[in-house]
């Protein structure tokens, strides 16, 4: 009995030590990942003089933080960089792209998961093969197509090329495949068409992965820079990322305003992640990413 108790106590000790070690490692990793964001936030609240005389990359150093937060920096950056137009454009472009991705990916994923047709496996393999093609390779062909359609410096050029996502189709297909076929067949026997089955049966059971696809599509569209730089010629449809690069060149040495403008661009994505993190992790764990 004494031996068993000793072994049990030793097991609890090992478990506690391993858990503590894992906690420390994860905490350090989180601090390293959050350090650039913390530096950006602290610098955005400093005066111009503080960005020169009180600069440190260590959060535990008093010079890392502003003596008195300068919230006016955000208002100045917003006004000087004309972010109201760019912010509106980013929201409109990102929301439109996200809705398009949800519609196209849901339809394609349902077809690959629940419909039986000749060449399904081959077509799906070809679709997945497009994931290995770098986006830069497609830049010139996409621009030629957009130019011939007359979409340069217009909203369709910033949204239509990205509403078809092979990864989103793959992710949703993995989850749709796990929806019992009996439910689909039962709905079909009741007279439901495939669009009705998708909207009334499959999608309600797939809210977590659909939310994750929406989250990833929104972030990708919000952070896009190279393509908007190519297809926009005036500020009319330029998103926040392009406006930020212009502001950086115009702001000169005012580092605090640069960081404030960057925080304006980053905060919506960070806030969205904190709202969506539960659904995002649930979708990844439940989908399993298996065929």
Walk me through the structure.
There is one protein chain. The protein is mostly helical. It folds into two domains: 2-70, no CATH class; 75-287, MetI-like (MetI-like fold), CATH 1.10.3720.10. Helix content is 73%, strand content 0%. The protein contains 14 helices and no strands. It has helices at 2-44, 48-53, 72-80, 83-114, 120-129, 139-148, 155-159, 166-176, 181-189, 194-202, 207-223, 226-231, 240-251, 255-287. Helix 1 packs antiparallel against helix 14, helix 3 crosses helix 14 (255-287) and helix 4 packs antiparallel against helix 13 (240-251). The two termini are 49 Å apart.
What's the SSE blueprint?
Elements: H1 2-44, H2 48-53, H3 72-80, H4 83-114, H5 120-129, H6 139-148, H7 155-159, H8 166-176, H9 181-189, H10 194-202, H11 207-223, H12 226-231, H13 240-251, H14 255-287
Helix pairs in contact: 1-14, 3-14, 4-8, 4-11, 4-13, 8-11, 9-10, 11-14, 13-14
How many β-strand runs? 0
Strand content: under 5%
Number of helices: 14
CATH topology of the largest domain: MetI-like fold
Task: Tell me the span between the first and last alpha carbons.
Answer: 49 Å
User: What gross morphology would you assign?
Assistant: globular
**CATH homologous superfamily of the largest domain?**
MetI-like
- Please tell me the CATH architecture of the largest domain by its name: Orthogonal Bundle
Average pLDDT, all residues: 85
Roughly how many Å is the radius of gyration?
Answer: 25 Å
How many individual domains? 2
Structural class: mainly alpha
Helical coverage, percent range: over 70%
Poorly predicted runs of 5 or more residues: none
Main sheet: strands, sense, barrel = none
Give the C-level CATH assignment of the largest domain: Mainly Alpha
Order of helices and strands: HHHHHHHHHHHHHH
